[in-house]
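Internal ticket #5521
Category: modeling
Description: The requester needs a full-assembly model to guide mutagenesis choices. All entity lines are attached below as received. Residue total reported by intake: 582.
Assigned to: D.W.
Attached entities:
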Amino acid sequence: MQAYELTIAAAADSLQRGELSALELTRSVLERIEAVDARVGAYLTMDREGALAQARQADDQRAAGEATALTGIPLSIKDVICTRGLRTTCGSRLLDNFIPPYDAAVMERLRQAGAVILGKTNMDEFAMGSSTENSGFHATRNPWDLECIPGGSSGGSAAAVAADMCLGSLGSDTGGSIRQPASHCGIVGLKPTYGRVSRYGLVAFASSLDQIGPLGKTVRDCALLLNAISGHDGRDSTSAVQPVPDFTDLNSDGLKGMRVGLPVEYHAAEGLHPDVRQAVAAAVKTVEGLGAETVEISLPHTEYGVAAYYIIAPSEASSNLARYDGVRFGVRSRDHAGMIDMFRRTRSAGFGAEVQRRIILGTYALSAGYYDAYYGKASQVRTRIVEDFARAFERCDVILSPVAPSPAFAIGEKTDDPLTMYLSDVFTLCANLAGIPGISVPCGFSSAGRPIGLQIMGRHFDESRLLQTAYQFEQATDFHTRKPGL
Amino acid sequence: MKISKEEVRHVARLARLTLDEERLDAMADQIGTILEYMETLNRIDTTDVEPTRHAVSAVTTPVRADTPREHLSHDEALANAPEKDGESFLVPRVIG
C-alpha cells in the first residue's frame, strides 16, 4: 500500500508510531497528484513548497510532543475558503488574481492542528452548480469514469479524495454541494448543522444556507475533521454557541433502538434511477439488519423544495455578489467609460453564464413588485419544509434517503438546461432550507460502475448520531474500500 | 412568456450586468422557464405563515465587548486592489 492511499486515521497512527514522517507522506501525495491530476483536474492551485514546509513543521511539532490527530495530514481545501497568501478564486475568472490577506476560521484551526495544506480544489463558480462544469477554469472529471462529472459544487474536493490526491478535504454545502459530489465519487461527505462551523472567511453564496464541512475516505476521517473545525467563533454572527462532542466517539454496537425514518417522497420519487433505488433499498435492509427500526414517514412539502430554494439562494447570492465591482479586489475591466460602466464591464466579463443567470433571477425575485410573490412566498414555504422535518423527527431519530436521483451523469449532458440541473438537487437542498445536518456514505455502484451514496439526515446539532449511523453502515459494507482504477 | 426581454434588460441593469442581444434572448427564455416552474409554490396556501429567514433557533446574535482588536494593515487591505495609490483604492472619475 502506498502512503497516499491511507485514511487520515491510519496515517495518524503510522505517524505516531514513527513508521512514516509527515514529509514522506506529503511527498507521496504530491507525487500522486503529479501522476493523475492531469486526467482528473481536481486542483486549481497547488502549493507544493508550502506543503513541504508545513510537513517539516509538522514533523517538528510531533517531535516536540505536540501532535494532534491532524498533525502532518495532507489536506485539500475547496477554493471558496480563504487561505492566507494562497490564491483563492472561487472558481471565478473575476477572482483569478485574488490572494486573501487572512485565513478563514477553519484554516486557522487546521493550521493550529498541524495539518498540511496541499492546494485549492476546483468548484462550480461561486459554488453555483451541481457538476463542477461551471468552473471558470476547467471541468473536473469523475475518477471512476473520466467522461462523467464528479458532482458539484465541491467536485474538485470529492475527486481529489476519491483519487487519493489528498487524505481529506473541506468543502461547502449550500444545497448539497458536499453530499452530492461525495455520493458521485464514492466517498463520505458531511454537511454539518447550520451554525456548527464558523463561516468566517468562507466566501458567501447564500448566507442563510451555506455551511462548511468535511469530505473524507471514511466516516471516521470526517469525524476527525469535524472535531477540528467545529465550535463557536465570535467573528461569524451565525456561529452557534453549542457544546462540541467528540465526534470520533464511534462504536460498533449495532443500531438497536435507533428509529430510522424513510420519507415516501424520496424513496418513491418519480425519476429515481433504478440502480439508485435498488442500492438505497439494500441499504435500508442493512440498517434493519443492524437492529434499527424503520418507519415510513412523510415530508409532504419536499416537491416544493427546489422552487423555494432556487428563489431564496439566488436572491441571497444577488446581494452577496454585489461586492464584486472591481474596486477592492478582482480583475477590473480596463476598457470603460466611467465608474458605473467599469462595474458593468468587470462583472459581465468576470462572471460566467450560470452566475449571471442566478444574479438576474435573484435580483428579479427581490425587485419591487415581485418581492412578495417570489422571495416572500418562498420564505413562507421554507417554514412548511422546516415543520415537515420537525414533525418527522418526532417519529424517528434519523432519516435515510438517496443523495442524488441518478449516478454521475456525462459531462455536457445537462449544461444547456439549467432547470433540469436544478431538479437534480431535490434530495439534498431541503436539509439546507431546514438547517439540519446530512451525510453521504457510499452504498453501492450502478451497473455502469459509478458510485451511489446513501444520505442520512438528523436533528439540529445531532451530527454524532449521523456519524454513528453512517459508521455502522460503513463497517457492515465494503463499498468504501473500493478504489477507482485510474 | 413569463418575463420579457425588456424586463431582463432592466433587471440586468439593476444588477450591473450587460448582456448582448443574443444573450438577452437566451436569458429571457431560461429565466422564463425557471419562473414558470416557481409557480408550483402557489399551490400551497401560506396565509398567515411566518417566513423563515434562518432555520436554526440556536443561532442567535451574541454580543461582544467593543474593544480594539488586531486588524489588517493598510497595505494588506490594499494588496488586491486593481488600482491604488498607496493610500486609497482608485476608481474612475465619478463626477465630470
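Resolution: model delivered.
Comment from assignee: Chain A touches chain B through 74 residues (CB under 8 Å).
Ticket closed.
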